[in-house]
Amino acid sequence: MLKPDELQVRLSAWERLGTFQRDFAIPWDLIDSARVIKDMWRNILGWRWPGLGVPHVVLIGRTVYRDGRDFCAIYMDRPGVILELHGAPYRRLLISTPNDVASAIIRRVTQG
Fold this sequence. Notes:
This protein is α+β, with helices and mostly antiparallel strands. The chain has helices at residues 13-19, 99-111; strands at 6-9, 24-27, 31-37, 47-54, 58-65, 68-75, 80-85, 92-96. The protein contains 2 helices and 8 strands; from the N terminus they run βαβββββββα.
């Protein structure tokens, strides 16, 4: 959900259960860049921990790697958005989202 001062990531009850993660928000000023990606699966780094994952079906949770950790909510082969962050609990957010929401996020990040 896009708010004037932050991007809110809201998880369903099943997503919260599978990831041990509550809803969270990222202030817009912590987002360095945003880009729309058609093949989200090619951009996953590291090992999933904790979370649920079946390749090309669902990946919901955190991935951990040498340089940091990401939060992923990737479903099927849906396109999505990748957000590069600084000063946040995650280095990146990889989120499958409809094109109109992805476009709104890109506009907000690039235009301030």
